Amino acid sequence: RLQNGVFGPDHSLPTMTIDEYLAEEKRRGGMVDGGGQTSSGGATQEEDEDGMEKADAETMKKREWDEYVEANPKGSGNTLNRG
Fold first, then answer.
1. Sequence-separated (6 or more) residues with CB below 8 Å from residue 24
2. According to the 3-state scheme, what is the secondary structure of the chain?
3. Is the pTM of this model over 0.90?
4. Which of 7, 10, 35, 49 could link 39 by a cystine bridge, Cβ 3.0 to 4.6 Å?
5. What gap in Å lies between CA 51 and CA 57, rounded to an integer?
6. CA–CA distance from 22 to each of 16, 17, 61 (Å)?
7. 27-48 as b/e: b if 16+ CB within 10 A
8. Within a 10 A sphere around the Cβ of 2, how many other Cβ atoms?
9. Nearest-angstrom CA–CA distance, 41 and 2
C-alpha cells in the first residue's frame, strides 16, 4: 500500500469531467438556464451616462492629482528647517 502511493500525485485528482459537473449542478438546481434581461438587453442609455459621469469624475481627479504632483515635485517641501 505504501509503495503504491510513492509515485502518485501529491494532490487529489478530479473525479468527474467538467461536463459531468455541469450536468450535476443543473440537476441540483445550482444553475439557471436561459438568459435574463441583463444578458440579452445590454446597457441602457441612462446607465451608460451614469458610467460616463463616474469615468469623467475619475479622470478629472487623476488630472488634478497629476497637476499637483507636477507643481510640487518630491523633496520641495520644508527646506528652511534643515538644521
1. 16
2. CHHHHHCCCCCCCCCCCHHHHHHHHHHHCCCCCCCCHHHHHCCCHHHHHHHHHHHHHHHHHHHHHHHHHHHCCCCCCCCCCCC
3. no
4. 35
5. 10
6. 10, 9, 45
7. eeeeeeeeeeeeeeeeeeeeee
8. 5
9. 58
Question: What is the distance between the alpha carbons of residues 13 and 41, in angstroms, rounded to a whole number?
Answer: 40
- The grid coordinates of residue 71 equal 507643481
∠ CA 58-60-62, rounded to 5°: 70
List, in order, residues 6 or more apart from 16 with CB less than 8 Å away.
24
Nearest to 31 by CA among 19, 41, 42: 19
Residue tagged 436561459 (cell numbers): 34
